[in-house]
Amino acid sequence: MNRLFLSPPHMSGKEQEYISEVFESNYIAPLGAFVNRFEESIKAYTGTSNALALSSATAGLHLALRVLGIGQGDVVLASTFTFIGSVNAILYQGAIPVFIDSDESWNLSPALLKKAIYESSVKPKALIVTHLYGQVAKLDEIVAICKEEDIFLIEDAAESLGASFQGKQSGTFGDMGVYSFNGNKILTTSGGGMLVSANEAWIAKAKFLSTQAKENFIYYEHKEYGYNYRMSNVLAAIGVAQMEVLDERIKRKREIFEFYQEQLSAIEELSFMPEIKSSRGNRWLSTLVFNRTNPMNVIEALEKVGVESRLLWKPMHLQPLFKERQAFVDGTSEAFFKQGICLPSPTNSTNNELMPVVEVIRNVCS
Ligand SMILES: *Cc1c(COP(=O)(O)O)cnc(C)c1O
Q1: Which residues face 127 on adjacent strands?
Q2: How many domains is the chain partitioned into structurally?
Q3: pLDDT at 29
Q4: Are 35 and 151 part of one and the same domain?
Q5: Whose CA is nearest to atom 4 of ligand 1?
Q6: How far apart are CA 238 and CA 13, in angstroms?
Q7: Which CATH number fits the domain that encloses residue 118?
Q8: Which residue's alpha carbon is nearest to atom 10 within ligand 1?
Q9: How far is the CA of 163 from the centre of ligand 1 (A)?
Q10: Which atom of ligand 1 has the smallest separation from the CA of 180?
Q11: For residue 5, is it within any domain?
Q12: pLDDT tens digits for 231-266?
């Protein structure tokens, strides 16, 4: 039997053709037509007006902080229940992360966000909010708080490409947003990211910084330091092909979620990650918490039948790296971490192939 993975890459079938076009043109790098096409397809899909293709979403978050003028000693609020890639860039900039817990939505708690703002001795400059596992956070409340308090909002939409709230795409609510095309995301270019913003000048500045901050001179002139963060034309060709099947991938991810929910509905101790009102998630990973069963027992039992599963993200405020950092928490994400798991959600699978997952969970929970 083939091993079942959490979220393996799934090609559309067009990738080779587009990559061949790149090779025939000789422009495997630097840049080229597919980088533009990839950016255009993200703009068309998400409705953002400016997009910048990068080597990763982490690079995008780093550029976002740089462009927004966030640096040494500045306070940046962030979801604690997330992957480290959300917050590493805060450290790259010498800024100070302050972590905020989740609420019943699993995503950032607006109430704790307010508390963090009112109780911080230094006024926070920005918030990085994560849309966990493809479901959007309470964007209406979060956007309102950030506007009111004059705090930049950066959306970590690395996991939530194609998810929407009130009909608007995740990643386009904040001052800036990022998507990831890392190997395990809903779409992949093997590695890559996209920075988006309604602000043209910010994206232009990010582009300049992403290509070594070369001034517009006939020779190489530098007034500030930049990075080598741009995406290659070869990977962008993969991205263009992947964007063509985004809707199909979301459809299948959502079917997988519904399949698990239905098949496991008799087990009372389970609760799946919710989808907040007026939102539509991409269900990148199907996730649930057990009320009673130790999730490690489930993970081990799944492993025995060749199925990959994982605990939910370990919150940032529990990481040794951040043990000295301030956090506004109430135990919510810690409980999720102790009780929850991510289930295999491969779009290139049939419901039949996912049946062993269901059977193992039924067995362990009985
Ligand atoms: C994957 C991920 C990132 C990092 O994306 P890269 O493209 O690998 O840099 C950041 N935040 C979250 C929530 C992620 O899941």
Answers
A1: 77, 153
A2: 2
A3: 76
A4: yes
A5: 85
A6: 10
A7: 3.40.640.10
A8: 85
A9: 16
A10: 7
A11: no
A12: 999 999 999 999 999 999 999 999 999 999 999 999
